[in-house]
Specification:
7 strands, two-stranded antiparallel sheet, five-stranded parallel sheet, 4% strand, mainly alpha
C-alpha cells in the first residue's frame, strides 16, 4: 500500500516517494512478512523527522499502536532514559511481568531502590522490555518509532538492539532514524539501512514553489545551489529571503557549512524577541529535552502562553496539544550557541534548582554551570554514577564518573574516578571508550598500582579491538614492573596479555610472556599463570602446565567467574575439551546475567569452538550465533569475525560448501588477517573444509598448505591453531599429488614438538603419518591414532581415522577388517550430520561388500535451524513458551511463532508429538 496516497489529509512530502514506499512496507510488515526493522539516515534537515511523523500517522491509521521516543542531547547521559520514554504508555503492565523481569525493570527505571549488594541483571531488563512489548503487540499490532537515535543513551540503544533482533514472529516493527554520520554502532551494519539523500532538482523546485513566498530570479538559483537538495535549507533560506527581499548577497555565509548557515538563520530571529521569550528559549535549549512544560513550570514566569507566542510566530517552536517543542534540533543549537557563557550558566543553574527532585539531571546541569573544578558538583555526579550502576546503566555511570573526574580538584582523586569510569565503560561493553578514559590517568598520579590498573584497562580495550601491538605495549611493561611489587597485578596483566599474544602468534611476545612470568615467583597457582603457560607453550611444556591446571582448578571457588573463564580457555588450548565445555558453559550461564558484553562474546566464542570440537555441532552453531551478536554489540572485533568463520566451518562439515565459502569470505571482507594470525588460520580451515566437502582436493591442499611457511624447513604460521589441520593437509595432499611436499611439512613440524602431546594432537599426527606413508608402517600409525579411547572425545576427527584406516585396509584386500571401522565411521558421521563424509563412508562400505542403503535424505529435524531445533528440544521436555523464552531470551509469542513453523517441518500437529518426532536426532548430535 502506498503511504503517500493513504493519508490524503496530510501535506505532500516532496521527492520522497522511495522513502515513503519503503516505510509503508515496514508498517505493513507488522502483521505480514518482510523485514521488521528499518534504519533511516540522513543529514540534518533531510526530513527524517517528517518521514518518521508520517510513518507514525500512517501506522495509527492502520490501527497500529505507535510507541515513540526521540533522542535528546540533554538526556544521553541518563541511563535508560530513552527506553523509559518509549515504554511510558505501557509502564502500568510491569506488574504483570514475571517476577525477575518486573524487578529488573523497576530498578532500571528508578521505580524501586536496589539493595546495597544487589546487582541488576541486564538480560532480565532487556527481556522484560521485550515481554512488555510482546504483550502489548498481542493486543494490538505495534510500531516502535525512534527519532534522533544518535542522542539516545547507550543503555537504551542496547535494549533496542536486543529487541530489534527478536521481532521475528511478533506483530511489531521498528523504525529508527539517525543522522547519517552518527548512526548508532548497534544499528549501522546489521539491519536494513535507507538514506534520505538530497532532493533531486525537480523535487527541490517543487518544494520552493510550495512555500508561502516562493523566491524568483537570481535568488531562486542561489537558494537551489546553496541548499543542495536539503529540504530544511530550501524552506529556511526561502523564508530568510522573503523577510528581507532587499538582501541579494550571501557574503561570508556562503563559505559556512550548511548546518552553520541554518543555525545563523535561526539565530537571526532571536534579537527581535522579548527578553522573557529569549530566556525561555534558552532554558528550553539548555534543558536538552522535549519535556518542557513540566520543567519550565518550576521556573517563575516561564510557563505562560504570552512567553511562547512570539517564538511560535517566528517558527522557532511548535505548540501542539499543550506541548512546547523546538521545531528542529538545529534551532536548539542555534539558541544555545547564540547565548553568552554567563547566560548559559544562569540557565543551567535555574534548571538545576527546578530539578531538585531529580538528582541525576540536577547534577548534570550543575556540571554544565561549573566555572572550573568543583568538589561538590563532582561528588553529586559520582553519586549519580552509583545510582546508575545499581540500575545497570554502566554507560551512564561511566559518563558521570568521567565528568566528575574533570571537576575533581585533587589529581589523585581525579585518577581514581577516571579508573572507576573506565571500569564502568568496560562493564558497559565499550572497549574504545575504556582506552580513551584510561589513557588520561598517567599525568595525574605517580602511584604505580593506579598506573598499572590504567594500563591493564587500556591493554584490555586494545586487545578486544584487535590492536594487539598497542595492547601488549601497555600490558607487558606493567607486568614486568609489578612482578615483585604487586605480583597479583603482574599476573593479571600477563593473563590479559596472553590473549592478544596468542591471536597474533608473534614469537617475540610469547618469549616476553614466558620471561616475565618467570620473574613472578609468588602465587604459583594463580589461574592467570595457567592461561599464560597454556597459551605460550601448549605442546612443549604441557606436563607442567597441566599440573598447575589441576591445582588451580581444585582451589577455584565455585563462584569465581573470572577463574572459570581463564581456566576454560586454558583447557581448550590444552585439548582438555570436555573440561573447557564444562568450565566455559558454567561461566556463560553466569555471564548472561552480567553486563560485560565483551566478556560474554569471548566466552561464548570459546565455548562454541569447544562444542564444535566435542561434536555438539547444533549447540556450537547457536552459541556461535550468540557470540557474533554479543561481539557486534560490544565492538569485540576478533569474535565478530571468528564466530561467522566457525559457522562457515560448520556449514562446510555438513555439506553446504558454497554457503560456507560465502559466509567465511563475508566475515573477513573488511579485516586485515595479517594482524591476527589465528583468524587467518581459522579462515583457511573453513575454506579447506569447504573444498573437502566438495571433493576438490587440490584447492583444499592449497588452503591447508598456506597454514605453513614455504621455507626449506616449513613452520606453522600459527604455532597452535595450524597443527590441527596437519592430517587434513595430508589427506588432501595424497589426492592432489602433493604427498612429498606434505611430508616435508609434517617432518619439519614434528621436530619442533615435545613428547608431552595431548591425546588429540598425537592422534592427528599419527593419522597424518599413516596417510603419507607408502610402507606397511601406515597400519601401525593408524592403530596408534586409535589406541587411546579418549580420542572419541573429538568425534569428527576420530571418525576420520576410522574412515581412512578402513579405506586403507580395503585397498589392501582386507575388507573383513575394514568393515567394522567403516561402520563406526558411518555411525559417527551420521550422528554429526556430516553429509559429505556420510556419503563417502557409505560408498566405502558398499565397496567392502556391505549392503548399505543409499544415503537417506536428512531426517525432518535436519531441516530445522539451530534455533528451531533448540526450541523443539525444550518444548519436547515439557517447558512452556514462557519458560523457553526466558531461557533463550525470546518472548513467549516468538517461541509460539517458531513452534508453528517447526510443527509442519516435523510432520506433527502438537507439542505432545515432538519427543517422538525428534527421536535421536533431537539430541544425538549434541
Amino acid at each position: 500500500m502506498d503511504l503517500g496516497t493513504e493519508t490524503l489529509t496530510e501535506p505532500e512530502i516532496m521527492g520522497r516517494d522511495r522513502e515513503l514506499s519503503r516505510i509503508s512496507q515496514l508498517v505493513d510488515a507488522v502483521e505480514g512478512t518482510g523485514s521488521k526493522v528499518l534504519v533511516l539516515s540522513g543529514e540534518p534537515g533531510a526530513g527524517k523527522s517528517t518521514l518518521v511523523d508520517r510513518a507514525a500517522s500512517y501506522a495509527a491509521s492502520r490501527d497500529r499502536l505507535v510507541l515513540r521516543v526521540r533522542g535528546a542531547e540533554g538526556e544521553r547521559e541518563l541511563g535508560f532514559a530513552g527506553i523509559h520514554q518509549l515504554l511510558h504508555p505501557l509502564l502500568g503492565g510491569i506488574g504483570r511481568l514475571p517476577a525477575g523481569q518486573r524487578d529488573a525493570l523497576r530498578l532500571a527505571f528508578g521505580m524501586a531502590e536496589a539493595e546495597p549488594a544487589q546487582r541488576l541483571d541486564p538480560m532480565l531488563t532487556r527481556l522484560g522490555v521485550l515481554t512488555l512489548l510482546s504483550d502489548a503487540a498481542a493486543e494490538r499490532p505495534l510500531l516502535l518509532v525512534v527519532d534522533d537515535a544518535q542522542w539516545l543513551d547507550l543503555g537504551t540503544l542496547e535494549v533496542l538492539a536486543f529487541v530489534a533482533r527478536r521481532l521475528e514472529g511478533e506483530p511489531a516493527a521498528l523504525l529508527l532514524a539517525a543522522r547519517d554520520e552518527a548512526v548508532p554502532a548497534r544499528f549501522d551494519r546489521d539491519f536494513p539501512l535507507m538514506t534520505a539523500g538530497p532532493l533531486d532538482r525537480a523535487a527541490a523546485v517543487l518544494l520552493l514553489d510550495a512555500q508561502p513566498h516562493p523566491p524568483r530570479g537570481r535568488v531562486r538559483s542561489q537558494i537551489l545551489q546553496q541548499a543542495a537538495g536539503n529540504p530544511l535549507a530550501l524552506i529556511e533560506l526561502s523564508r530568510a529571503y522573503a523577510k528581507d527581499p532587499s538582501r541579494r548577497d550571501t557574503g561570508s555565509v556562503d563559505s559556512l557549512p550548511l548546518t552553520a548557515r541554518l543555525e545563523q538563520i535561526f539565530a537571526s530571529e532571536l534579537p527581535g524577541l522579548p527578553e522573557a521569550t529569549r530566556r525561555a528559549l534558552l532554558l528550553a535549549a539548555a534543558a536538552g529535552t522535549d519535556r518542557l512544560p513540566g520543567l519550565l513550570h518550576a521556573v517563575p514566569g516561564m510557563d505562560g502562553p504570552q512567553v511562547w507566542m512570539p517564538a511560535e510566530r517566528t517558527g522557532l517552536i511548535r505548540v501542539e496539544g499543550g506541548q512546547v517543542r523546538l521545531r528542529h534540533p538545529l534551532v536548539r543549537s542555534a539558541i544555545y550557541q547564540a547565548a553568552t557563557f554567563t547566560e548559559r550558566r544562569e540557565a543551567h543553574l535555574a534548571l538545576a534548582e527546578a530539578l531538585s527532585h531529580e538528582p541525576d539531571r540536577r547534577a548534570w546541569h550543575l556540571a554544565a554551570a561549573s566555572l572550573g573544578p568543583d568538589a561538590e558538583v563532582a561528588d553529586a555526579l559520582a553519586e549519580s554514577a552509583e545510582r546508575s550502576r545499581h540500575r545497570g546503566g554502566y554507560a551512564a555511570a561511566a559518563a558521570a564518573l568521567e565528568r566528575a573526574a574533570e571537576l575533581t580538584p585533587e589529581p589523585g582523586r581525579r585518577a581514581v574516578r577516571l579508573l572507576a569510569a573506565a571500569k564502568s565503560a568496560m562493564l558497559g561493553g565499550q572497549p574504545q571508550w575504556v582506552n580513551e578514559i584510561a589513557s588520561r590517568v598517567e599525568p595525574l598520579t605517580d602511584d604505580p598500582e593506579l598506573l598499572g590498573e590504567a594500563s591493564l584497562l587500556a591493554g584490555w580495550s586494545l586487545a578486544v579491538t584487535s590492536r594487539y601491538d598497542d595492547s601488549l605495549a601497555y600490558l607487558l611493561p606493567v607486568a614486568e614492573a609489578m612482578a615483585t611489587e604487586a605480583p597479583a597485578l603482574a599476573l593479571d596483566a600477563l593473563g590479559t596479555a596472553a590473549t592478544p599474544s596468542y591471536r597474533s602468534a608473534n614469537p617475540f611476545y610469547r618469549a616476553e610472556l614466558k620471561r616475565i612470568n618467570d620473574l613472578v615467583v609468588e602465587e604459583p597457582y594463580k589461574v592467570d599463570r595457567v592461561w599464560v603457560l597454556a597459551s605460550v607453550a601448549p605442546f612443549t611444556d604441557r606436563e607442567r602446565t597441566m599440573g598447575l591446571f589441576e591445582r588451580a582448578e581444585e582451589a577455584m571457588a565455585e563462584s569465581s567467574l573470572a577463574d572459570a573463564v581463564m581456566l576454560g580457555g586454558a583447557a581448550w588450548v590444552l585439548d582438555e575439551t570436555d573440561r573447557a565445555v564444562r568450565l566455559l558453559g558454567r561461566a556463560m550461564d553466569h555471564l548472561r546475567r552480567a553486563a560485560t558484553a565483551g566478556t560474554n562474546a569471548t566466552v561464548a566464542y570459546s565455548l562454541a569452538n569447544s562444542l564444535f570440537e566435542s561434536g555438539a555441532w547444533t549447540a556450537a552453531q547457536s552459541t556461535a550465533e550468540d557470540a557474533f551478536w554479543m561481539a557486534t554489540e560490544a565492538g569485540a572485533d576478533y569474535m565478530a569475525v571468528g564466530s561467522p568463520i566457525l559457522q562457515a566451518t560448520l556449514r562446510a562439515a555438513r555439506g553446504d560448501h558454497a554457503g560456507a565459502r560465502q559466509r567465511a569470505d563475508r566475515a573477513v571482507r573488511t579485516v586485515d588477517l595479517r594482524k591476527s594470525t589465528s583468524l587467518y588460520v581459522l579462515h583457511l580451515r573453513a575454506l579447506g573444509m569447504a573444498s573437502l566437502a566438495e571433493g576438490d582436493h587440490r584447492t583444499a591442499y592449497e588452503q591447508y598448505r598456506r597454514m605453513f611457511t614455504r621455507d626449506f624447513h616449513p613452520v606453522p604460521v600459527h604455532y597452535h591453531a595450524a597443527l590441527y589441520s596437519l592430517a587434513d593437509l595430508a589427506a588432501s595432499a595424497v589426492r592432489a599429488g602433493q604427498a612429498e611436499d606434505a611430508r616435508t611439512v609434517l617432518h619439519a613440524v614434528e621436530g619442533t614438538l615435545g613428547e608431552s602431546l595431548s591425546v588429540r594432537l598425537r592422534s592427528i599426527l599419527h593419522r597424518a603419518r599413516a596417510l603419507l606413508t607408502d610402507s606397511d608402517d601406515a597400519e601401525l600409525h593408524f592403530r596408534a591414532a586409535l589406541a587411546d579411547p579418549k580420542g572419541a572425545r573429538w568425534p569428527f576427527e576420530h571418525a576420520l581415522v576410522h574412515l581412512d584406516f578402513g579405506e586403507w585396509l580395503r585397498r589392501h584386500r582386507r575388507s573383513a577388517e575394514a568393515r567394522p571401522l567403516l561402520t563406526t565411521a558411518l555411525e559417527y558421521f551420521d550422528r554429526l550430520d556430516a553429509r559429505p563424509w556420510v556419503e563417502r563412508a557409505g560408498a566405502e562400505l558398499r565397496a567392502a561388500g556391505v549392503s548399505v542403503a543409499a544415503v537417506a535424505a536428512p531426517d525432518a529435524a535436519a531441516g530445522l535451524t539451530p534455533q528451531e531445533l533448540q526450541i523443539a528440544q525444550l518444548a519436547a521436555e515439557g517447558l512452556t513458551n514462557r519458560e523457553i523464552g526466558a531461557r533463550l531470551y525470546l518472548s513467549p509469542r516468538t517461541i509460539g511463532f517458531h513452534l508453528h513453523k517447526i510443527f509442519p517441518k516435523l510432520g506433527v500437529t502438537g507439542r505432545a508429538q515432538l519427543r517422538d518426532a525428534l527421536g535421536s536426532a533431537g539430541a544425538g548430535s549434541d
